[in-house]
Amino acid sequence: MTVSVDRTGTVTRKAGSVESVGKDGAGRYCVTLKKTVDVARSVPIATLDSAADWKSGIYVGRTGGVCPANSVRVTTGTDGVAQDQPFTLIVP
């Protein structure tokens, strides 16, 4: 499963089992997977898009707090502050 997301949280490209992408604040995205994927058994990998600002960072983890069940949390920021950045997520 692969999904590319722009700064606004809009999906620009996807392949596989992505149900939806939501955004709940600056630099905070929830990527919900279809029920056929068990996120608890996956190792999500995220990378910033080449259009991201310099000095930006990205963090990824399995379902956490505010995200729906069976989702991946992606957090992006610049210079230590949460900020919207484009990214690609792979969940093997």
UniProtKB/TrEMBL annotation:
Organism: Embleya hyalina
Domain of life, per lineage: Bacteria
Name of the featured protein: Uncharacterized protein
Species lineage: Bacteria, Bacillati, Actinomycetota, Actinomycetes, Kitasatosporales
